[in-house]
Amino acid sequence: MAAPFSSFNQIWSYPNTTVTGSSGSQTNATATATLPAVANKTNFVTGFDISSSGTIAAAVAATLTGAGSGTMTYQINTTPAFSSVQFSHPIPATALNTAITLSVPALGASGVGSANIYGFLV
After folding, report:
1. What global pTM score does this model have?
2. Is the pLDDT of residue 5 over 60?
3. Cα 30–36–41 angle (5° rounding)?
4. Which of 10-14, 15-19, 32-36, 51-55 has the highest mean pLDDT?
5. CA–CA separation, 57 vs 21, rounded Å?
6. How confident is the model at residue 1, as a pLDDT?
7. What string of DSSP letters covers 90-107?
8. Given strand 72-76, what is the order of strands in its sheet?
9. pLDDT of amino acid 12
């Protein structure tokens, strides 16, 4: 007998091209990570990571644009932190040949932030 909700236990497989983007470390500057637009392809985002260190001036809102039906916003606390978001289902770009971008605002004079985004192309 199959386990209830066995479909929730499936492991996603991505047979197409894996793509990633990274902002690198940014001191008091916007950290932007992008899955670039590719002609005749659709980006899908599967997740992202945000890290911060140092003294962060105030809570900030990271945004994910170009995916789903609009801008998605994620709050970053005022303490040094690491956040990882994994979507239960990949989220497609809003259209063919569309980039998906994660932006983390400047964190303050001594705040260092970085953003990483990952997904695949179809």
Report:
1. 0.81
2. no
3. 155
4. 32-36
5. 26
6. 42
7. EEEBSSTT--EEEEE---
8. 31-35, 100-104, 60-65, 72-76
9. 52
- In this predicted structure, the answer to whether residue 71 has a pLDDT above a threshold of 50 is yes
- Is the model's pLDDT at 35 over the cut of 50? yes
105 domain residue, yes or no:
yes
Q: Residue 93: inside a domain, yes or no? A: yes
Both tokens of residue 60? 């900030």
> Per-residue pLDDT for 77 more than 80?
no
Residue 92 lies in a domain: yes
Q: Is residue 35 part of a domain?
A: yes
Q: Which domain holds residue 28?
A: 24-121
DSSP lists the bridge partners of residue 82 as 51
Q: What is the CATH number of the domain that holds 72?
A: 2.60.120
CA 12/CA 86 separation, integer angstroms: 12
DSSP per-residue letters across 8-57: GGPPP---SEEEEEE---EESS-EEEEE---TT--EEEEEEEEEEES--S
Sign of the CA dihedral with 53 first, then 18, 86, and 64 last:
positive
